[in-house]
Amino acid sequence: MRLAYLGTPEVAVPPLLALLDAGFEIPLVVSGPDKRRGRGSALHASPVKAAALDRGLPVTADVDDLFDTDVELGVVVAYGHLIRPHVLDRVPMVNLHFSLLPRWRGAAPVERALLAGDAETGVCLMELEEGLDTGGVYRCVTVPICEEATLDSLRGELVEIGSELLVGALREGLGQPEPQLGEPTYAKKIRPEELVLDLSRSAVEVNRVIRLGRAWTEHNGKRLRVWQAKPIDTDVPVGEIVLTPDDVLLGCGTGALALIEVQPAGKPRMSASAWRNGL
User: Fold this and answer.
1) What is the pTM of this model?
2) What is the mean predicted confidence (pLDDT) over 158-178?
């Protein structure tokens, strides 16, 4: 089967490589345009573009280039752009989406599942249509969310499962999609202010934000990133950091957090015990 592949970030690289390793032909990859970042604002290719070029595949940032390419199906994984109807009319497409649709349609399904305290999430292979993640579902796998799961670990698990799901479905044949059932919810992108710890909330809720990565609070007027913590049932004044012989405790509205890994302003990540020893 000749496929077009549309994807941009790092999470879209493993499914691309899985398709290639399974023997599918990919005559064209569509990815987001190069972006300026780092010192000197040099242009950098997206992770998918870099991986595709490494495998010798042609890459474009213009989805209309699909019209000049002989493909049977487009595979979309975290492409980052809505695909216009005139393209969908010419090239049928499927989308690998990291949630249990119709829950968490949109840009940040894994993040929103963690923040909401969902007990499970999953991967759906769906028919792409003009609406936002509204198409029928061909295949779906449910994945439990453990209490220690971080955004990186959960996303990595979903990408691995999704890559296998995608290859298997294309080998076996897609069949007919089933319509989505249930009340939709929408996963907006995480805003920077959502990563500021609201310590008036319960320790469990605060820890969900920490599990996203790059969450922070302040200590002595300076930013303190909290990379890992554990909710415990003890009383510490809200917002205060209390040092004990064994723990660094951060008070929350209900319970407290035992800090495990932190990053003071201007310093590398370190264990909370090492940070405590330096205070």
Assistant:
1) 0.94
2) 97
